[in-house]
Each structure stands twice: as structure tokens, then as C-alpha cells.
Design brief:
The complex is a heterodimer of chains A (607) and B (251). With 607 residues, chain A is an alpha+beta fold. Chain A contains 15 helices and 21 strands. A six-stranded antiparallel beta sheet of chain A has the order 13-12-17-16-14-15. In chain A, strands 6-2-1-10-19 form a five-stranded parallel beta sheet. Chain A has a four-stranded antiparallel beta sheet with strand order 18-11-20-21. The termini of chain A are far apart. Classes of the chains: A alpha+beta (607), B alpha+beta (251).
Chain lengths: 607, 251
């Protein structure tokens, strides 16, 4: 084998593409794996924008304030040095993306424009219309294509990561096993460092704002091989989504950032056309309860208030679980320019024109703050140490995680427009960290491993898929998945009670038994979409268990995690990350102190 | 008014295998899109005659018309299945077929690699020096940004390529196709991209380049993002001609 270190990146969203670029820029070849052509990754779905305290609106915004907002937004559950490093880098990231050609919206003077988003009082969100994730993803995709033409990047699009290859239990990671989704061939790929950038897990909940590819299966596979998983209970519910039978479509926070107002009729069962309801008979409940932040409270708070108004007070529009999100007071020209693409989505899927009729929305599963545990090393002044190979490394040496699949930046609740930032930043950090690790004399090189290590790993997965192919029970995997999603949505979302969580955990055990009774209808060896899904569903059941048990343990309310039995944040007992480690008996939990060396936890208020 | 949804879907197990139609019946509900229908079939893969069948192979990801995965021919016209609501289709049987201009993989899945290869040919990127901190990019007028934004929404879905009479993914060397040309124009709108104007325009000359466009104008008509592809191609054509003449006369 060659002396050149081998790098594998799994996942072609913002985090994976940025990590790929950073490694290639250092002259190293990278193999990039993705279940879909990378340009179709879920990052494309981000709408509203990306945060950076560039401060061009004369507000005296700064990265330190951005750090404070992010830490407070996350209810003090995020380690602070990584957050501070990210917010310091954010303005440079915006400039880099600008140089890459992202068509960011502009002020009249030709500067980057910024809009408001939730959880901050500053104009800090750069945007490209209302499809910012798409433009950012494409810009990075284009840079990777350039490296592909130069021969430094080799793409494996249409390949699914099945699991890491470990030289011994506990690592180091020496490669991956992956499945060619077209030819249904399973192969082992040796590597000196592997970066997982495999995205979120919304599909565990069946219908969410996530793409159908966001199963979390890859992160679960790493967990099952010994990677620790942090804060699984912290799953963000976005306040405003369009309910649908196949998915919940996101209605970006930028709709409120640009002036959208949330309201319900004050009178229960008011059947009047919304435009016929006079101002005095409308309840703008967020503006009333949170005069300072109004409709731009953080997402956990917005979702809980909407849920409360609909479910507890029964004031949902038309007696259903929906509230108005109203933009009709804004001019058509303004709306088309600033929010065109999301208003088109609403129009297309609902049939009403949101420029003239208030939208009907309800909260939906949106983002996982939790994910694979990753390490960092800090300097004495509280930033990432850029020379450390430990940044973004999981507890398995040589295995890194970056983006939504890890738990690093958002604590118990993510602020809007911080996801695009954290994914790109995680790529910027993990790529170089992996190259530093691979260059160390102490790293065990894949080339030094016996070939039997890779042959055995591939054989184990081939055997596993052969067993899946022979499953002849009566359960349909897609139906079981839908039931899992309904169970999770009913019990592990906005309001959580220990009794329900215990019951849910029991039901998941039952689902795990039912999984074994799946009957596979497609046994073919060409583009068989059923076998990978059966495998993913197994992993999704593991994640459902992790989320539920982590939620059961945390007897407090913090960020997205709310238990009426324990309605207050309890820093004395719970200012710590929930860390799960896989064992044959199921997850074992430990707790990790939070690095609060920069900002002392304070009460989290937005009124 | 529909009471049930009848879908006629073209099935083909693999390249070279015979193609056949299968029919499926689903109970009607309002606001169903075609991906929701395919998901329902996957939960109960039984055809209209009550026979158990394999689930239909198709691509999908975002389900909100931004990833470009689920292109297929619906009643003969290329479109995104996720944003196509049953309610908006004429009553009667709905036919689903794979795109015909790309090599078939299975059922509704085709291989759209030729389009991504086209993006390589047109140098579809901004040649930045490096990812290190070099400060902001040049200022851009809002109007220029607005025009660029329209082209930046191309999802590489392939609907325009399907509708184009001159493109064929089976012989992509004959014509690079409208989507990569739209992107070529997009990169020329960028101040840094323009610095390579010569190379960019020359990449569009020669076999399979812009002169292979027959000006049928089908591309813009089927684009789900309403990208003004014909405008881009017309403007590119003028720029390429100027370049060619300048080269001819040593300018």
C-alpha cells in the first residue's frame, strides 16, 4: 500500500463537503461516500440563512454576543469553547462562501444583507432568498467537483456506509464497510481517518421536516460499534411546518424574521375567514407573552406555546392543531424577493397563496442537537486548539463526526440559522484534525493492518445482508416504520412524561421483536431499496430507544426537553450531557460535565 | 371528482430487462402528491389485480422540490413527483415512467451522471485561491444577485434534458444539454467567474457545445424552478460567437 494517508468522508452535505475540501486542499486524496449524489443532500433544505456577527447594520453585534446567544439558546448544555470558536470564525465563513459565489441577498449598496432570526435581537443572518442551504450546498459541491476534476476527490455516490472497521474493540478506526446501492455489492475500504458527516435522524419520527434519507442509520451504526452518543433526548421541534401525509414541510423561521406574525382567533371555534377577523379578536400570543422577542423566541419556546394554545387551550384554528402564520400585511414584491421560494412551497403543497391568505402551520420534528460524542482540545483563552487532532474525534481514534450527526454546538436547543454555520464549521475543523491525526507517528495506519481485518469485516456485512434477504415473516418494514414514527411523535416530542416514556420504551422493545418478523418482498440483487431500508430500520429502532431512555433519565426541563413533572431547569443535578454507550444489554448511560468556563449559566428569559 | 387513484407504472427490473406496466389503485385523499402514493404502495406492494409485487424502485429525498431527486415522466411530461399533486392532474389513470433520455437503472430510477459530467465540462465552479481568510468577495449589485439567484436554483433534476430534442444521455457527446449551459451562464455572472471568461466560453465551443442547441425552447417550459434557460443560452451564444470571431480575426 502507498505511504499516502487515506481519508474517507461519509456524507456529502455541508459538513462532509467542507471536510473534503479542507483535506483535498492540503493535497491529500479523499474518497467521498454518499447515499445520494451529494448535490441532493439534506443541507439543500435549509431555508432561512446562516448566522455570523458581521455587524453591518450598526448594531454593535460581535462574535462574543453571537456566542452568548447560542449558549443561552441551547440552555447552557453546550460546551462553550467550541461554540465560541465557531462564532469567532463565522464572519470569515460568510466571506469564504461569498467568494465561492453564493448569491447572497444584497443591500442597496451591494453589501451582504442580514435579517433577523429567533433567539437574538440582532440582524445576524445572511441569506440567499429563502433557499440558503441549497445555494451553500451547491457552492461547496462545485468546489468539490473542481477537486474531482483535478483527481484529488473520488466520489462514491450511491454507496451506503454500513459500519466502521476497528482494529480492535475501542479502535482505532481503520476504514469502513459500504454497500453499493445499485449493484448491491458490499466492500471494505481501508482508511487512516474517517469522517462521518451523515446528518440528522428525523426519519426515526416517521414524518419530519427532514429528507427521507435522514435516518440517522450511519451514526447508529457507529454507536453500535462503540462510539458514544450524546444528548440523544435533545430533538428540536420546529414551530412552523406544513403538515402532510408524506412529510412535514418546513416553513422557515425567516417568515417570522421578515415580519410574519403568529396568531389564533381569540374565540374558540371561530369559523370566520381569517381576513374577516378584526385585530382586536386575534390573539398574537407570542407577541403578548414575549414582548421583547415576540414571534422570534427560540424554537423550543415557540413550539411549546403553539402546542399549548392548540392542545391545552383548544384554540387551534378550526378546532385543529394549527395556528396562523400571517404575512399578508407585507407587500407582494417584498415577499417574493425575500421569501419567494418558501412561499412557493406552501402554495404548491397547500394550494393557498400565503401572500393573501394566512398560512396554517404546526410544529414538527426538525433537528437533532444530540449525536455522536466528539472531543475537543482548547487553548488557555478558551478556543479550539487548531493543532489538536482530537477536535471532532469520537471516542474511537481515527473516527471523526461532523455536522448534525454529532452533539457539539447546540446544547439543548439550536438557534435558527446556526445549523448551516455549525455544519460548515465542523467540516472546517474536522478535516484538518483528521490530517493531523493521520500524520502522527502514533496513528495505526490502515496499511499496517492484516488484510483479514478488512475481509472479515466485509464478510460479516455480506452475511448480515444475506440474512436480511431471507427474512420471511409477516411484517412490512415500511408499515413498522410508520408505527415507530407515530409512537415517537406521540410520546417523545414537545411534552414528555416519565410514564409515557416508560411505555414507549416497552413498545420499542416490542417493535424490535416485530422487526425480526419482517418479510422481505424484494430479494433481488440490483437496486434493491428494501434490504438497505430493513437494515436502517434496525438502526432507527436503536436510536428511538436512545432518545426515549435519555429523555426518561433527564428529570428536568431544559431547551427542547420539557417534562411537566419537572418544569424547571435543574443546574444542580442536570448541567451535564447524557452520554450513551452501547452494550449487548442495551445502552449504558454516564454523564459529562459541561465546560461553562466562559459564560456562567443564567436564567433563560426572552420576555 | 376522483374516488380512487389509479396509477399505471412502468416497471423494468434492470437495464436490458423487458419493461412492463403495472397498475395500482389507492383510496383518494385530498392533497396527496405522487411520492405519498409511491410510499403507500411500498407499505402494501400489491397491484390492482391483487398480486403481490416488488416495491417500486424510485429516487426521492427532500419531498419539497429542492433536491431534484424524484424526476419522472408523469402522463408523459417530465416533472418532480413530490410537488405533483394528484388533485392537479386530469381525472383518469396517471402514468409514471422513468426519464427516457438517461440510461435506465431500475423502474423509475435512471442514471443522471451525464448531467454532472456536463457540469465538469463547463467548469461549473468559482476558481477561489483557497479556503483561508482572504476577506469578502467583491460587492455585487442587488439586480445582478437577483439574476444569479434564479440560475443558482438549478437542482440538476434533468427535466430540461429530458424535454430537449438534442440531448441524449445515451450519447452525451452530441450535446452537453440545457442544464449545464444554464450553469455556464451562471458562473459568467459572477465577478470572479468572469475572470476566466475566455476559458469558459471556449469550453462551450466545439463538438457537443452550444451550437448543438436546436433552439426548441422546451427546456425552459418544463423547468420546475422556472429558470430562464433559453435566455441564458441566447446570451451565451452571442458571447461565444463574439469570442469565436475575435479569435478568427486575432482580436
Amino acid at each position: 500500500m502507498s505511504a499516502q494517508p487515506r481519508f474517507l468522508v461519509v456524507g456529502g452535505g455541508l459538513a462532509g463537503l467542507m471536510a473534503t475540501i479542507k483535506i483535498a486542499e492540503r493535497g491529500h486524496p479523499v474518497a467521498l461516500f454518499s447515499v445520494v449524489p451529494v448535490k441532493r443532500s439534506h443541507s439543500a433544505c435549509a431555508q432561512g440563512g446562516i448566522n455570523a456577527a458581521v455587524n453591518i447594520k450598526g448594531e454593535n453585534d460581535s462574535p462574543e454576543i453571537h456566542c452568548y446567544d447560542t449558549v443561552k439558546g441551547g440552555d447552557f448544555l453546550a460546551h462553550q469553547p467550541p461554540v465560541r470558536s465557531m462564532t469567532l470564525e463565522a464572519p470569515k465563513i460568510i466571506y469564504l462562501l461569498d467568494r465561492m459565489g453564493v448569491p447572497f441577498s444584497r443591500t442597496g449598496e451591494g453589501d451582504l444583507d442580514f435579517r433577523r432570526f429567533g433567539g437574538t435581537l440582532y440582524h445576524r443572518t445572511a441569506f440567499a432568498g429563502a433557499s440558503t442551504g441549497q445555494q451553500l450546498l451547491y457552492a461547496l459541491d462545485e468546489q468539490v467537483r473542481r477537486y474531482e476534476v483535478e483527481g484529488l476527490v473520488q466520489k462514491y455516490e450511491g454507496w451506503e456506509f454500513l459500519g466502521p472497521i476497528l482494529a480492535a474493540p475501542g479502535g482505532p478506526c481503520c476504514g469502513i464497510v459500504a454497500l453499493d446501492l445499485r449493484a448491491m455489492k458490499i466492500e471494505a475500504f481501508p482508511a487512516d481517518a474517517v469522517i462521518l458527516a451523515t446528518g440528522g435522524l428525523g426519519v426515526v419520527y416517521g414524518r419530519s421536516t427532514n429528507s427521507v434519507i435522514c435516518t440517522g442509520s450511519a451514526a447508529a451504526a457507529a454507536y453500535l460499534e462503540g462510539a458514544r452518543f450524546g444528548n440523544a433526548e435533545m430533538v428540536q421541534i420546529h414551530p412552523t411546518a406544513i403538515p402532510g401525509e408524506d412529510k412535514m414541510r418546513l416553513m422557515s423561521e425567516s417568515a417570522r424574521g421578515e415580519g410574519g406574525r403568529v396568531w389564533v382567533p381569540r374565540k374558540k371555534g371561530d369559523t370566520r375567514d381569517p381576513k374577516e377577523i378584526p385585530e382586536a379578536e386575534r390573539w398574537y400570543f407570542l407577541e403578548e407573552k414575549y414582548p421583547k422577542f415576540g414571534n422570534l423566541v427560540p424554537r423550543d419556546i415557540g413550539s411549546r406555546e403553539i402546542y399549548h394554545v392548540c392542545v391545552d387551550l383548544g384554540l387551534g384554528v378550526g378546532g385543529e392543531n394549527q395556528v396562523y402564520l400571517d404575512l399578508t400585511h407585507k407587500s407582494r414584491e417584498f415577499l417574493d424577493r425575500r421569501l419567494g421560494s418558501i412561499l412557493e412551497i406552501y402554495e404548491q403543497f397547500v394550494g393557498d397563496d400565503p401572500r393573501t391568505v394566512p398560512m396554517r402551520i404546526f410544529p414538527a420534528i426538525h433537528y437533532s442537537m444530540g449525536g455522536l460524542w466528539v472531543d475537543y482540545e482548547k487553548t488557555p483563552d478558551g478556543y479550539y486548539d487548531p493543532a489538536s487532532p482530537r477536535n471532532h474525534m469520537t471516542n474511537l481514534p481515527g473516527l471523526y463526526a461532523a455536522g448534525e450527526c454529532e452533539y457539539q454546538y447546540h446544547g439543548a436547543n439550536r438557534l435558527g440559522a446556526n445549523a448551516l454555520l455549525s455544519c460548515i464549521y465542523a467540516g472546517l475543523v474536522s478535516g484538518p484534525a483528521a490530517t493531523i491525526y493521520a500524520a502522527q507517528g502514533t496513528a495505526q495506519r490502515a496499511a499496517e493492518q492484516p488484510s483479514s481485518l478488512f475481509d472479515d469485516a466485509a464478510r460479516r456485512w455480506r452475511d448480515r445482508f444475506e440474512r436480511l434477504r431471507r427474512m420471511q415473516g409477516r411484517e412490512n418494514a415500511r408499515t413498522l416504520h410508520r408505527e415507530l414514527g407515530d409512537l415517537m411523535i406521540d410520546n417523545v416530542t414537545i411534552v414528555r412524561t416519565n410514564a409515557n416514556l416508560d411505555r414507549t420504551d416497552d413498545t420499542i422493545s416490542g417493535f424490535m421483536e416485530r422487526w425480526k418478523e419482517i418479510g422481505v418482498t424484494d430479494t433481488g440483487d440490483w437496486s434493491n431499496q428494501e434490504l438497505p431500508f430493513v437494515n436502517q430500520l434496525d438502526n432507527m429502532l436503536q436510536l428511538a430507544r436512545l432518545i426515549t431512555r435519555s429523555a426518561r433519565l433527564r428529570d428536568e426541563s431544559r431547551g427542547a426537553h420539557y417534562k411537566p413533572e419537572f418544569p424547571a431547569r435543574d443546574d444542580a443535578n442536570w448541567l451535564k450531557s447524557t452520554i450513551a454507550t452501547h452494550t449487548p444489554r442495551g445502552p449504558e448511560f454516564s454523564f459529562e460535565e459541561i465546560d461553562t468556563s466562559l459564560l456562567k449559566p443564567v436564567a433563560r428569559k426572552y420576555d | 371528482m376522483r374516488r380512487e387513484i389509479v396509477l399505471k407504472i412502468q416497471r423494468q427490473e434492470r437495464p436490458g430487462a423487458p419493461a412492463a406496466w403495472q397498475e395500482f389503485r389507492l383510496p383518494y385523499r385530498p392533497r396527496l402528491n405522487l411520492i405519498a402514493c409511491l410510499q403507500e404502495i411500498a407499505r402494501r406492494p400489491v397491484d390492482a389485480a391483487g398480486r403481490a409485487v416488488t416495491p417500486i424502485a424510485y429516487e426521492s429525498a427532500c419531498l419539497e422540490e429542492v433536491c431534484g431527486s424524484c424526476s419522472m415522466r408523469v402522463n408523459g411530461v417530465p416533472m418532480q413527483a413530490c410537488s405533483t399533486l394528484v388533485d392537479n392532474l386530469p381525472d383518469g389513470t396517471i402514468t409514471l415512467e422513468p426519464l427516457s433520455k438517461f440510461p435506465l437503472v431500475r423502474d423509475l430510477i435512471v442514471d443522471r451522471t451525464p448531467m454532472f459530467e456536463g457540469l465538469k465540462r463547463v467548469r461549473g465552479w468559482i476558481p477561489i485561491e483557497g479556503t483561508y481568510d482572504l476577506g469578502p468577495a467583491p460587492r455585487r449589485a442587488p439586480a445582478e444577485q437577483g439574476e444569479a439567484y434564479d440560475y443558482s436554483r438549478c437542482m440538476t433534476c434533468g427535466c430540461c434534458m429530458e424535454a430537449c430534442p438534442n440531448f441524449s444521455g445515451h450519447a452525451p457527446e452530441r450535446f452537453v444539454g440545457p442544464a449545464p449551459l444554464g450553469q455556464a451562464y451562471y458562473f459568467l455572472l459572477n465577478p470572479t467567474g468572469r475572470m476566466e471568461e475566455g476559458e469558459r466560453l471556449e469550453a462551450l465551443m466545439g463538438r457537443g457545445g452550444i451550437t448543438a442547441c436546436g433552439n426548441a425552447q422546451n427546456c425552459a417550459a418544463v423547468c420546475p424552478k422556472e429558470i430562464p434557460l433559453t435566455d441564458a443560452i441566447a446570451r451565451l451564444n452571442r458571447q461565444v460567437n463574439r469570442r469565436w470571431l475575435a479569435r478568427l480575426f486575432g482580436g
